[in-house]
């Protein structure tokens, strides 16, 4: 799958391919030859103590038709136990390195898959094990992703007891017809039940994930979902636009002719735009191309926006997870057996790495921070000694002409049209050799 070329007109039809940008340079430029760069980074004491932690949990009850994550459905508790052991052992392996000395862990994120697939006992063992190995006294935010049918009060209480501050519930839609057509296990009632339980367990920070462009979605069912979500008043709503990937059952269905055409890209943008408008009318603030926040004054996103998108360091554990230490990106092996085997034999399960040049570090922050819809010119001047208006003059001029962006008051700010298309615009800020190449 290739990254779109700079300023190429986004496609209309939802065809197979990547669109979402989660990091820069593209993963396809990371390689095994650069793993020594990570080892070198690990041998140095940290110049700054701040660190975030990502833990990948690749298990789910069912595989949804559109999902492109590497997930393992219906695995036995013994397999999950084996995985938790490996994650804890992986952290053990990192501990002796100077790079982990005196660290201040700021935020933790459990992503998947569905971390809520773990039993409450496994949640306790995993969190306790991590806390015994890394000091959690300064953790400001700990997020746990949940798939609604796997949520129980017991699990949520275990999370609360062990310091989780936020749950992110994968709703995707509040239409039973759409959920069924998407191969979701959850129905509307499961989503609402999970939300009620999260409140009952005392969570005051709940994010709901929605997905625009699922099979059988109509403008009407989409707006009904948005209205129902507004009625629940979660602290945050995250809306993705559906990507169609080669490894999904949905793509297989389209190819075989058993699945009709999916909502187009302009339709998805329109739906997200409508959703943002409704959320704004209900008092929410749009915090990025994906996120609406109920109380921006008290809501923070330490892990992503404050830390990782600003070049902060991230220790990543688990199969296929990616991290970043001193300007070196790395990603773990993405096969379960290989991951477990590598960790058991005492070898770090890193599959590929990439040391960033100064130029790439700057571009990475431009790319990732543009997802928030606004770049502060002074920030880049003081951190990189660069005036981004001059450096990216051709890109900014073109985007201004297309009414995607405005440059004013010391900022580069996306218009709403720009924000809804943000992932299509970002490759324009890549180095020329990274445009039009495979992303993953
Ligand atoms: C790893 S999932 C975590 C939630 C949980 N597994 C669930 O689905 O309920 C993170 C989010 O990725 C999004 N996602 C999954 N597949 C996607 C796709 N093909 N295109 C865009 N977003 C997708 C969904 O909104 C999902 O909630
Ligand atoms: S969308 Fe969520 S629940 Fe569905 S298969 Fe993917 S990770 Fe699992």
What would you report as the Rg, rounded to the nearest angstrom? 21 Å
Number of domains: 2
From the N-terminal CA to the C-terminal CA, the straight-line distance is 7 Å
Helix content: 25-40%
Main sheet, how many strands, which sense, barrel? Answer: 9 strands, mixed
What's the CATH first level of the largest domain? Answer: Alpha Beta
Oligomer: single chain
Side by side, the strands of the main sheet go 9-10-8-7-6-5-4-1-11
Structure annotation, total helices: 17
Q: Which residue ranges are poorly predicted, with pLDDT under 50 across at least 5 consecutive positions?
A: none
> What is the CATH topology of the largest domain?
pyruvate-formate lyase- activating enzyme
Bound molecules: S-adenosylmethionine, iron/sulfur cluster
Number of strands: 17
Structural class comes to alpha/beta
User: How does CATH name the architecture of the largest domain?
Assistant: Alpha-Beta Horseshoe
Which descriptor suits the 3D outline?
globular
The CATH superfamily title of the largest domain? tm_1862 like domain
pLDDT averaged over residues:
95
* Percent strand: 15-25%
